[in-house]
Specification:
Belongs to the NAD-dependent glycerol-3-phosphate dehydrogenase family. By secondary structure, this protein is α/β, with parallel strands linked by helices. 51% of the residues lie in helices and 10% in strands. It has 2 domains: 166 residues, Rossmann fold; 138 residues, N-(1-d-carboxylethyl)-l-norvaline Dehydrogenase, domain 2 (Orthogonal Bundle), CATH 1.10.1040. The chain starts with a helix and ends with a helix. The structure holds nicotinamide-adenine-dinucleotide and SN-glycerol-3-phosphate.
Length: 322
Amino acid sequence: MAHHLGKKGSKVTIWALESEVVDGINNCHENSAFLPGFKLSDNVRATGSVDEAVSGAQLLLLIIPTPFIARWVTQNQVKLPWNVPIVCCSKGLEESTLRTPYEILVDELPGKYHSQLCVVSGPSFAKEVAMGLPTNVTCAATDPDVAKLVQAGLSTRTFRVYTASDVIGAELCGAVKNVLAIASGASDGFGFGSNARAALISRGLPEMARLVVRKGGKASTVTGLTGIGDLVLTCSSSLSRNYTVGKSLAEGNPPDSGLAVAEGVTTSLAIHQLAQKLGVDMPICEAVYQVIHGGVAIRDALRSLQDRPLRAENYDVLDSCG
Ligand SMILES: NC(=O)c1ccc[n+]([C@@H]2O[C@H](COP(=O)([O-])OP(=O)(O)OC[C@H]3O[C@@H](n4cnc5c(N)ncnc54)[C@H](O)[C@@H]3O)[C@@H](O)[C@H]2O)c1
Ligand SMILES: O=P(O)(O)OC[C@H](O)CO
């Protein structure tokens, strides 16, 4: 995103955790740890100081893995300006509290920040964004003016931003698709074929919709970029870390994604707990949870989805889409 905005002409300062990442960006214009092979725009620089990163900022993009958001925000809250949009781009659920990134920010930041919070989500592999390939995403905010500000701030001819109001829906879609992508990667890893992958995607969609609606979001959100858009992308490409974790599980490896984060691994536990708490039926996500956290063999978990009692293809939850 920094490179994208730098190419657009914005001056961007990245705060990064690792000093070698800061040095690599400032000295070699490359983030060789997390985005190797890209010469970053000259408008992008990095720092290890949050104060320096946010100084004079017109837009803050918060893009850190979900498990670290709460701690990072509580540690740095006093340094964050409250009068510019804070755009949350992370996709997942916090394991201990089952909160989405936006819910974490609302809880951890004082009320004066709340109207500035928004979410950007949708089918957007970082590598393709960095390459300048056509990408469409959605900015969801409770305040439409904030959504429009972010839309204008991020959009270019290759990066098109839509606005929306369903924040919780957009976030839950982003969290659930990562778990479903693990199932899809595993299915492909076993060579179960294109039919199986298409079934996982289309039967994953009502799981997503049921959770969104139960949490107060709109069913129609799952039909958009943050829903089916990101679901199709992540379930069908080796560029996805989550899909890749699934493929690796099928090869008999543990659910370890290495350096890069696959949010679906921890999110599968949170989705399991949230679905139980809210009484939402999410069999594919549950199968992924059983594999990663319950010791069930991945082949058995996928097979068990086929062995469930025959039933009607019920998409009632989507019938409420306007
Ligand atoms: N990479 C993508 O294509 C993509 C696209 C859309 C959304 N996202 C979401 O963005 C979020 C971040 O993913 P990513 O792809 O940038 O991750 P990544 O795996 O490329 O990098 C992980 C990042 O997390 C940082 N980090 C690690 N521990 C941290 C801590 N304790 N505090 C702060 N930062 C820490 C690392 O410094 C590193 O920059 C995830 O929620 C992901 O789902 C990623
Ligand atoms: O690599 P993944 O699986 O985390 O997916 C990245 C993005 O969320 C795709 O939109």
